Amino acid sequence: MSITTMKRYELKFILNKSQFEYMKEQLINYMNIDGYGESHIVSIYYDTPDYRLIRTSIQKPKFKEKIRLRRYDTGDYFLEIKRKLYKVVYKRRIKTTKEEVDAFFNYDSNLDDTQIGKELVEFRNTYGKLIPAFLTSCKRIAYYQDNSDLRVTFDYDLKYQADNIDFNNIDDCDYIVNEDTIILEIKVQSAVPNWLSDILNKGQIYKSSFSKVGMAYKKYMTMNNK
Protein backbone atom coordinates (compact mmCIF):
# COMPACT_ATOMS: atom_id res chain seq x y z
CA MET A 1 0.00 0.00 0.00
CA SER A 2 1.34 3.45 -0.90
CA ILE A 3 1.99 5.84 1.97
CA THR A 4 -0.36 8.81 1.61
CA THR A 5 0.42 10.81 4.78
CA MET A 6 3.84 11.62 6.19
CA LYS A 7 5.09 13.72 9.09
CA ARG A 8 8.82 13.98 9.68
CA TYR A 9 11.93 16.11 9.91
CA GLU A 10 13.96 16.50 6.74
CA LEU A 11 17.59 17.59 7.09
CA LYS A 12 19.58 18.52 4.00
CA PHE A 13 23.31 18.59 3.30
CA ILE A 14 25.17 19.67 0.15
CA LEU A 15 27.92 17.21 -0.74
CA ASN A 16 30.78 16.99 -3.21
CA LYS A 17 31.78 13.67 -4.78
CA SER A 18 34.37 12.74 -2.15
CA GLN A 19 31.87 13.37 0.67
CA PHE A 20 29.32 11.29 -1.24
CA GLU A 21 31.74 8.35 -1.44
CA TYR A 22 32.58 8.75 2.24
CA MET A 23 28.92 8.65 3.26
CA LYS A 24 28.22 5.55 1.19
CA GLU A 25 31.17 3.75 2.75
CA GLN A 26 29.93 4.59 6.23
CA LEU A 27 26.23 3.89 5.72
CA ILE A 28 26.81 0.36 4.47
CA ASN A 29 27.56 -0.64 8.08
CA TYR A 30 24.17 0.54 9.32
CA MET A 31 21.65 0.72 6.47
CA ASN A 32 20.49 -1.03 3.31
CA ILE A 33 19.92 0.34 -0.16
CA ASP A 34 16.23 0.10 -0.98
CA GLY A 35 15.00 -2.30 -3.62
CA TYR A 36 14.81 0.31 -6.38
CA GLY A 37 18.57 0.95 -6.43
CA GLU A 38 19.14 4.09 -8.47
CA SER A 39 15.81 5.65 -9.37
CA HIS A 40 14.83 8.63 -11.47
CA ILE A 41 12.34 11.06 -9.94
CA VAL A 42 10.65 13.79 -11.95
CA SER A 43 8.30 16.40 -10.49
CA ILE A 44 6.18 19.20 -11.90
CA TYR A 45 5.58 22.05 -9.46
CA TYR A 46 2.40 24.05 -9.90
CA ASP A 47 2.25 27.71 -8.99
CA THR A 48 0.42 30.94 -9.69
CA PRO A 49 1.50 32.84 -12.82
CA ASP A 50 3.54 35.20 -10.60
CA TYR A 51 5.24 32.31 -8.72
CA ARG A 52 3.58 33.15 -5.42
CA LEU A 53 4.31 29.78 -3.78
CA ILE A 54 7.96 29.64 -4.78
CA ARG A 55 8.65 33.27 -3.88
CA THR A 56 7.12 32.74 -0.46
CA SER A 57 9.10 29.54 0.09
CA ILE A 58 12.53 31.02 -0.64
CA GLN A 59 11.90 33.70 1.98
CA LYS A 60 12.06 30.86 4.54
CA PRO A 61 8.90 31.65 6.52
CA LYS A 62 7.85 29.55 9.50
CA PHE A 63 5.09 28.06 7.34
CA LYS A 64 5.29 27.27 3.64
CA GLU A 65 3.60 24.92 1.22
CA LYS A 66 3.85 23.63 -2.32
CA ILE A 67 1.97 21.33 -4.66
CA ARG A 68 3.57 19.00 -7.17
CA LEU A 69 2.93 16.02 -9.39
CA ARG A 70 5.69 13.44 -8.94
CA ARG A 71 6.48 10.54 -11.26
CA TYR A 72 8.53 7.53 -10.23
CA ASP A 73 10.35 4.90 -12.26
CA THR A 74 7.46 2.52 -11.61
CA GLY A 75 5.27 4.76 -13.75
CA ASP A 76 3.22 5.80 -10.72
CA TYR A 77 2.10 9.42 -10.37
CA PHE A 78 1.30 11.14 -7.08
CA LEU A 79 -0.19 14.58 -6.60
CA GLU A 80 1.29 15.91 -3.36
CA ILE A 81 0.83 18.80 -0.99
CA LYS A 82 4.01 19.38 0.97
CA ARG A 83 3.92 21.74 3.93
CA LYS A 84 6.59 22.78 6.40
CA LEU A 85 5.76 24.29 9.79
CA TYR A 86 8.44 25.01 12.40
CA LYS A 87 10.87 22.62 10.66
CA VAL A 88 8.40 19.72 10.61
CA VAL A 89 7.44 18.47 7.15
CA TYR A 90 3.93 17.22 6.40
CA LYS A 91 3.16 15.51 3.11
CA ARG A 92 -0.26 14.47 1.83
CA ARG A 93 -0.66 12.73 -1.50
CA ILE A 94 -2.91 10.63 -3.70
CA LYS A 95 -2.07 8.29 -6.54
CA THR A 96 -3.36 9.63 -9.84
CA THR A 97 -2.56 10.12 -13.52
CA LYS A 98 -1.28 13.05 -15.55
CA GLU A 99 -4.61 13.28 -17.38
CA GLU A 100 -6.56 13.45 -14.11
CA VAL A 101 -4.25 16.15 -12.78
CA ASP A 102 -4.62 18.22 -15.96
CA ALA A 103 -8.39 18.07 -15.53
CA PHE A 104 -8.05 18.93 -11.84
CA PHE A 105 -6.10 22.13 -12.46
CA ASN A 106 -8.48 23.07 -15.26
CA TYR A 107 -11.33 22.86 -12.71
CA ASP A 108 -12.90 19.99 -14.68
CA SER A 109 -12.40 17.45 -11.87
CA ASN A 110 -11.97 17.22 -8.11
CA LEU A 111 -10.04 13.91 -8.28
CA ASP A 112 -11.61 11.82 -5.49
CA ASP A 113 -13.80 12.30 -2.44
CA THR A 114 -11.24 11.25 0.19
CA GLN A 115 -10.03 13.62 2.89
CA ILE A 116 -6.76 14.17 1.02
CA GLY A 117 -8.70 14.77 -2.18
CA LYS A 118 -10.71 17.46 -0.40
CA GLU A 119 -7.50 19.06 0.88
CA LEU A 120 -6.14 19.18 -2.66
CA VAL A 121 -9.32 20.91 -3.84
CA GLU A 122 -9.06 23.43 -1.01
CA PHE A 123 -5.43 24.12 -1.89
CA ARG A 124 -6.27 24.66 -5.57
CA ASN A 125 -9.24 26.89 -4.79
CA THR A 126 -7.24 28.97 -2.32
CA TYR A 127 -4.61 29.94 -4.88
CA GLY A 128 -6.87 30.12 -7.92
CA LYS A 129 -5.17 29.56 -11.25
CA LEU A 130 -2.26 27.13 -10.81
CA ILE A 131 -0.08 26.26 -13.79
CA PRO A 132 3.02 24.11 -14.34
CA ALA A 133 5.83 26.40 -13.20
CA PHE A 134 8.92 24.19 -13.04
CA LEU A 135 9.89 20.60 -13.69
CA THR A 136 12.72 19.12 -11.64
CA SER A 137 14.56 15.90 -12.33
CA CYS A 138 17.06 13.95 -10.25
CA LYS A 139 18.53 10.52 -9.79
CA ARG A 140 18.26 9.07 -6.30
CA ILE A 141 19.78 6.36 -4.17
CA ALA A 142 17.83 5.69 -0.98
CA TYR A 143 18.85 3.85 2.17
CA TYR A 144 16.62 2.42 4.88
CA GLN A 145 17.21 0.83 8.27
CA ASP A 146 15.25 -2.20 9.47
CA ASN A 147 12.74 -1.51 12.25
CA SER A 148 13.37 2.23 12.03
CA ASP A 149 11.71 5.29 10.52
CA LEU A 150 15.13 6.58 9.40
CA ARG A 151 15.59 7.11 5.67
CA VAL A 152 18.62 8.60 3.92
CA THR A 153 18.63 9.68 0.28
CA PHE A 154 21.22 11.01 -2.14
CA ASP A 155 19.96 13.11 -5.05
CA TYR A 156 22.24 13.97 -7.96
CA ASP A 157 22.14 14.93 -11.63
CA LEU A 158 19.84 17.76 -10.54
CA LYS A 159 18.11 19.38 -13.51
CA TYR A 160 15.13 21.59 -14.26
CA GLN A 161 12.84 22.76 -17.02
CA ALA A 162 10.88 26.00 -17.02
CA ASP A 163 9.75 26.34 -20.62
CA ASN A 164 7.75 23.75 -22.55
CA ILE A 165 7.37 21.64 -19.41
CA ASP A 166 6.71 18.03 -20.34
CA PHE A 167 7.32 14.68 -18.62
CA ASN A 168 8.06 13.25 -22.04
CA ASN A 169 10.77 15.78 -22.82
CA ILE A 170 13.01 15.62 -19.76
CA ASP A 171 16.15 15.31 -21.86
CA ASP A 172 15.72 19.01 -22.59
CA CYS A 173 16.69 20.19 -19.11
CA ASP A 174 19.37 22.43 -17.62
CA TYR A 175 21.44 21.74 -14.52
CA ILE A 176 20.14 23.42 -11.39
CA VAL A 177 23.61 23.50 -9.83
CA ASN A 178 27.06 22.15 -10.65
CA GLU A 179 26.67 18.66 -12.06
CA ASP A 180 28.97 17.26 -9.35
CA THR A 181 26.68 18.45 -6.53
CA ILE A 182 24.87 15.80 -4.48
CA ILE A 183 22.10 16.49 -1.98
CA LEU A 184 22.02 14.29 1.10
CA GLU A 185 18.69 14.24 2.87
CA ILE A 186 18.01 12.63 6.24
CA LYS A 187 14.34 11.92 6.90
CA VAL A 188 13.30 10.91 10.40
CA GLN A 189 10.28 11.26 12.64
CA SER A 190 12.23 11.97 15.80
CA ALA A 191 15.96 12.48 16.40
CA VAL A 192 18.93 11.65 14.19
CA PRO A 193 20.70 8.63 15.75
CA ASN A 194 24.05 9.23 17.42
CA TRP A 195 25.94 6.96 15.03
CA LEU A 196 24.78 9.04 12.05
CA SER A 197 25.61 12.32 13.77
CA ASP A 198 29.11 10.97 14.44
CA ILE A 199 29.56 10.04 10.77
CA LEU A 200 28.51 13.52 9.68
CA ASN A 201 30.82 15.22 12.17
CA LYS A 202 33.83 13.12 11.21
CA GLY A 203 33.20 13.84 7.56
CA GLN A 204 32.81 17.57 8.28
CA ILE A 205 29.39 17.50 6.67
CA TYR A 206 27.12 20.23 7.95
CA LYS A 207 23.42 20.92 7.60
CA SER A 208 22.44 23.34 4.88
CA SER A 209 19.35 24.63 3.12
CA PHE A 210 18.45 23.52 -0.39
CA SER A 211 15.30 23.47 -2.48
CA LYS A 212 15.42 22.07 -6.00
CA VAL A 213 12.53 24.18 -7.23
CA GLY A 214 13.73 27.24 -5.30
CA MET A 215 17.20 27.02 -6.84
CA ALA A 216 15.69 26.36 -10.28
CA TYR A 217 13.55 29.48 -9.93
CA LYS A 218 16.56 31.63 -8.96
CA LYS A 219 18.67 30.34 -11.83
CA TYR A 220 15.88 30.75 -14.36
CA MET A 221 15.17 34.30 -13.25
CA THR A 222 18.84 35.23 -13.35
CA MET A 223 19.37 33.74 -16.78
CA ASN A 224 16.33 35.56 -18.15
CA ASN A 225 17.02 38.88 -16.39
CA LYS A 226 13.71 38.78 -14.55
What would your notes on this structure say?
This protein is an alpha+beta fold. Helix content is 26%, strand content 39%. The protein contains six helices and nine strands, in the order βαβαβββααββββαα. The protein has helices spanning 17-27, 52-57, 98-105, 115-127, 194-202, 212-223, and strands at 5-15, 32-47, 63-71, 77-85, 88-96, 131-144, 151-161, 174-175, 182-188. The termini are far apart. The model has no long low-confidence stretch (mean pLDDT 94).
What structural keywords apply?
6 helices; globular; 226 residues; alpha+beta
Could you list the spans in which at least 5 consecutive residues all have pLDDT below 50? Answer: none
Based on secondary structure, the structural category is alpha+beta
- Let me know the average pLDDT: 94
Helix content: 25-40%
Largest sheet: 8 strands, antiparallel, barrel
Run of helices and strands: EHEHEEEHHEEEEHH
